[in-house]
Amino acid sequence: MTVETTELRLPSRIETVAAAAAAVAEFVNRSGVSDDAAFGIDMAVREAVTNAVVHGNSQDEGKVVDIVLKSSPDAVEISVHDQGPGFNPNEVPDPTVDENILKTSGRGIFFMRSFMDEVDWFLPPEGGTTVRMLKRR
Amino acid sequence: MAELNIAERQAGDVTVLDMSGKITIGEGSVALRTAIRRLLEEGKKRILLNLAGVGYIDSSGIGELVSSYTAINKEQGQLKLLNLTQKLQDLLTITKLLTVFDVYENEAEALNSFK
User: Fold this and answer.
1) Which of A38, A120, B68, B115 has the fewest CB atoms within 10 Å, i.e. is most exposed?
2) Nearest to B4 by CA among B41, B49, B42, B46
3) Do B66 and A54 touch (CB under 8 A)?
4) Is the pTM value of this prediction over 0.90?
5) B101 has a pLDDT exceeding 80
6) CA of B60, closest CA in chain A: separation in Å?
7) Which residue segments constitute the domains of chain B, with CATH numbers given?
8) Which residues of chain A have pLDDT under 50?
9) For residues B22 and B28, what is the distance between their CA atoms, to the nearest angstrom?
10) Do A105 and B64 touch (CB under 8 A)?
11) Phi first, then psi: what are they for A107, rounded to 5°?
12) Does domain A4-136 have CATH number 3.30.565.10?
């Protein structure tokens, strides 16, 4: 079974979101997923990297965002790691309930969960937060 | 080239913003916010966003649309959306915002709805 892996280390600034999305798009294109799946992966990656840069690393340029891309015959897996204080996704309110619909933020995790088949968060012992997202073929 | 290009035109008392590009975190979202703030400062409160050329929007861009909508409503104005791409329509559907925004596929119909 062939597994292709690519690792990226990017600085904590807003421009990183587009840079990461471009790198992931190239990886995904090479790994041959459907257009719909590629769109979903792109959305989810942008949201995950935005969270890592803005909420995790607070745009501190002394901190980096690490991205690991894995492609196997069954799935594409993307992990995004920040060096922030850690976070609990269960504390993020549902943006689709009536009282939250007109909020101007808080939809990133909802999009990640909507477009990927699996989304899990880990707090690794070395610190920070890792989000792992899987899109099955 | 800018991430989001916005061209302004006037149709009666409705200001139409023809937008093309991406409404994403950073430049795109800021460009939309700046344009809406400027229109409100100029007293232009009836605004139609023509999104035909917007091929991509992220959660920050969706947030900016919501922010524009509430800012214009607060000034007793109206914000309406025209020519959503299928992808944008899907995003507004899953976020339940399609029930909030007044959305049109035909410009004449959209302009008439302001009257």
Assistant:
1) B115
2) B49
3) no
4) yes
5) yes
6) 7
7) 4-112 (3.30.750.24)
8) none
9) 6
10) no
11) -105, -5
12) yes
* Contact across the interface for B24 and A95, Cβ inside 8 Å: no
Q: Nearest Cα to B83, choosing from B36, B17, B37?
A: B17
Q: What is the DSSP string of A42-104?
A: HHHHHHHHHIIIIIISTT-TTSEEEEEEEE-SSEEEEEEEE-SS---GGGSPPTTSGGGTT-S
SS3 assignment, position A15: helix
Reported ipTM = 0.90
| Length of chain A (residues) | 137
Which tops the pLDDT comparison, B62 or B1? Answer: B62
Three-state SS annotation for chain B: CCCEEEEEEEECCEEEEEEEEEECCCHHHHHHHHHHHHHHHCCCCEEEEEEEEEEEECHHHHHHHHHHHHHHHHCCCEEEEECCCHHHHHHHHHCCHHHCCEEECCHHHHHHCCC
Domain residue spans in chain A? 4-136
Q: Could you read off the pLDDT of A75-90 as tens digits, one per residue?
A: 999 999 999 998 888 8
Contact residues on chain A for B94, CB-CB shorter than 8 A: 96, 110, 114
pLDDT digits (tens, 9 = 90+) for A2-13: 789 999 999 999
